Amino acid sequence: MELAFASRLCFPAPKQYGREVNRCPSNGYAPRRYYSRKKSPYTVACTAQQAQLSEVALETQKHELLRAVQDTQRGLVSLEGYCSGAPIDLVKLDGTWRLQYTSAPDVLVLFESAARLPFFQVGQIFQRFDCRKKSDGGSVDNVVQWSVPSLLEEENGATLLVSAKFSVVSARNIYLQFEEINLQNFKISAQLQALITPAILPRSFLSLQVLQFIRAFKAQIPVQNPGRQGVGGLYYLSYLDRDMLLGRAVGGGGVFVFTRAQPLDF
Q1: Looking at the domain assignment, is residue 13 inside a domain?
Q2: Do 51 and 125 belong together in one domain?
Q3: Which end of the chain is more exposed for a tag (fewer CB within 10 A), N or C?
């Protein structure tokens, strides 16, 4: 509601950003000013600063998560809300990922066995996705590096490779269909090599054949039978960016924390 009377004295209005449309009329009444809507430089700066703070907070939480799990095999996933509902980016998913933490029983049993058995060691565990040129799925290799002390090289004496195909079934879910298990990349220790081919004796053809057989040995175990439904599982990829991957095995199979790793060469 406008005032019925107004003084002829016009006090300067506070500074505003925008373009003045109408000037003060000459009828003696207080001027009415209109301004076009335009974001001030301050508002634009605040928006950019908020985006930067959000990115910093995200990186901080990722760092804190890795610190929390670096000395234990149990931890807490705290980043899942950042990209919940967003579709899976297969270009980002493609590549090699190193396991930093898991609560999955089928993986923890490996660490528990290594803790109890002096002749068994578990090294690094990886997942390798091949899906860059796909739109609805791809292939994935679960890679476990293991060893038998004194017979094979420490922690990386052999490789357990579980291969699977996966398909995208919803925005954040993939279904894995396991195909086969491979035992390969055997690297014998210096002690075993010296036992097979002593340095003080000339290497015979037989001893060289034994070394070559061990290094090239590869055992393949099919997981699925022809005409039958193979072993599979549903996984929820709860977070994915350029250097971190979080996932859950649907049905209580545990959580996984991965970080980007260098490509594996088999």
Answers
A1: no
A2: no
A3: N
The more confident residue out of 136 and 5 is 136
Do 49 and 93 share a domain, yes or no? Answer: no
* pTM check: above 0.70: no
Q: Using 50, 70 and 90 to split pLDDT, how confident is the model at 1?
A: very low
Q: 149 and 37, same structural domain?
A: no
Q: Yes or no: say if 17 and 30 are a contact pair by the CB < 8 Å rule.
A: no
**Residue in the structure block whose two tokens are 């209005």:** 13
Phi-psi region of 47 (alpha: psi -120 to 50; beta: other; left: phi over 0): alpha
Residues contacting 67, CB < 8 A, separation 6+ = none
DSSP symbol at 95: E
* 221 membership: H or E segment, kind and range: strand 219-222
pLDDT digits (tens, 9 = 90+) for 215-245: 777 788 887 666 566 678 899 998 899 999 9
C-beta atoms surrounding 183 within 10 Å: 15
* CATH code, domain with 231: 2.40.128.280
CA–CA distance, 245 with 187 (Å, rounded to integer): 30
Same domain for 143 and 231?
A: yes
| CA distance to 18, 41, 51, 97, per residue, from 46 (Å) | 18, 9, 9, 36
